[in-house]
Amino acid sequence: MKRNSPFSSCLCLLWLLTAVMLQAVESAKGKYAHMLFNELFEDYSNALRPVEDTDKVLNVTLQITLSQIKDMDERNQILTAYLWIRQSWYDAYLTWDKDKYDGLDSIRIPSNLVWRPDIVLYNKADDDSSEPVNTNVVLRYDGKITWDAPAITKSSCVVDVSYFPFDSQQCNLTFGSWTYNGNQVDIINSLDSGDLSDFIEDVEWEIHGMPAVKNVITYGCCSEPYPDVTFTLILKRKSSFYIFNLLLPCVLISFLAPLGFYLPADSGEKVSLGVTVLLALTVFQLMVAEIMPPSENVPLIGKYYIATMTMITASTALTIIIMNIHHCGSEARPVPQWARVVILDYMSKIFFVYDVGENCTSPQRKKEQEHKLERDDNGQRRHKEESHLCSRNDDTDLKKLNGNSNKSCEIHGENARVPVNCCSCYKILLKNIEYIANCVRDHKANKAKGIEWKKVAKVMDRFFMWIFFIMVFFMSVLIIGKAA
Ligand SMILES: *[C@@H]1O[C@H](CO)[C@@H](O)[C@H](O)[C@H]1NC(C)=O
Ligand SMILES: *[C@@H]1O[C@H](CO)[C@@H](O)[C@H](O)[C@H]1NC(C)=O
């Protein structure tokens, strides 16, 4: 430590000396700047265009840096963006010889002291007329003034939502002088596109470029050209938010609708399922309608909703008709021949409908069971008829018949012991039995008719279920295909 101390103190002294000298230079610079400022602005007016020859044009170079997209209001067609606007021009009256001012080559002064070009955003959609911000300008010894100003611009932008949520938008930002024509102030874009290097990534929009074009418009009346620079902001919507929140739920719900045809008719839920699905879709449609402009161009997703809702309305209406067919019952007329051939013979095979209520048992076993029952039934009836045809000596059989027969027969039954009248009694009995058999047969036929109508309803249900499934599927593929 002690050995080093002379050296370190020396270093310290040197450092101090440098600091003092620097301060002196700076204070000298400050003095010069003060002097320069007083001299420059002695008889300077910021109201007049700073050119030596008034016939000469003043060139203003414009450069836009896009920092952020704050908002895109589709409904009101307004793009709010955060921009840095850099304008530079040469002021003929604000020049100096930098050697005379100790090499001072630039000063920074408030921008309201110097003349500023009145370049404005033509397609502004802001209601308040904001003044230009009084940021500093950099003034160079040769008269070049560079003015950087941040700005939050609200510009009108024609938003075409036909392909929402898979849309791209182009928003123009047109800058031009408000009062000077092209012979007085000419506006030039320094680069052929806006600067996007400082852009803060947006959650909703991807930027696909910001080309700049200079347009010169000459109006019919006057010979003066009016130049402007138009920056076209090319935006592509990031659609995953809308896919997950608006599209997928709708696709899933719409797949539920055809299943309404599969619901058993007796559950009584067939129609309410359709109506519920319809209501759910209406909610989604309202959500979309709220963010979209009320324009003629219906967005793609809106078209999808409308198509799906139409389909579900149709399916609900069809369900009601099929329910009617299902409940045709035994009083109805029989199933027409063509329907029997087309629906019961062919379509039932195509759609694998075997019988009413086959859902819960395997169709094969059910069929066998029914066949067996029918065979038993037939066999018994034939057997009974044979045994009853005048088995006159069978006393027990006779007694049984007496017990079961109706009243008219009972009166005769008193004389049943008398063998002479026996045959006539049997004839009456036979007649009654025939009547009962007919009744049963009719009843069975009616029941079969009801079952047949039920089967027709079921086949139609199945048919429409597949038709609507295919429709929902194709519509979903179409809308999701647009995303790619
Ligand atoms: C302005 O720019 C044009 C070219 O665009 C050039 O010909 C003209 O000399 C410039 N004027 C001045 C004063 O720099
Ligand atoms: C935007 O500006 C470009 C270039 O000037 C022009 O071609 C286009 O028509 C403009 N678009 C709208 C919507 O004004």
TrEMBL record:
The chain crosses the membrane at residues 241-264, 271-292, 304-325, 463-481. One of its GO terms (molecular function) is acetylcholine-gated monoatomic cation-selective channel activity. The lineage of its organism: Eukaryota, Metazoa, Chordata, Craniata, Vertebrata. Keywords: Cell membrane, Disulfide bond, Glycoprotein, Ion channel, Ion transport, Ligand-gated ion channel, Membrane, Receptor, Signal, Synapse, Transmembrane, Transmembrane helix, Transport. It is found in: Synaptic cell membrane. The keyword Transmembrane applies. It holds the Pfam family Neur_chan_memb. InterPro entries: Neur_chan_lig-bd, Neur_chan_lig-bd_sf, Neur_channel, Neuro-gated_channel_TM_sf, Neuro_actylchol_rec, Neurotrans-gated_channel_TM, Neurotransmitter_ion_chnl_CS, Nicotinic_acetylcholine_rcpt. Residues 365-389 have a biased composition (Basic and acidic residues). Residues 1-27 form the signal peptide. PANTHER family: NEUROTRANSMITTER GATED ION CHANNEL. It comes from the Eukaryota. Residues 363-389 are annotated as: Disordered. This is Neuronal acetylcholine receptor subunit alpha-9. One of its GO terms (cellular component) is postsynaptic membrane. Belongs to the ligand-gated ion channel (TC 1.A.9) family. It comes from Tinamus guttatus (White-throated tinamou). It is a multi-pass membrane protein.
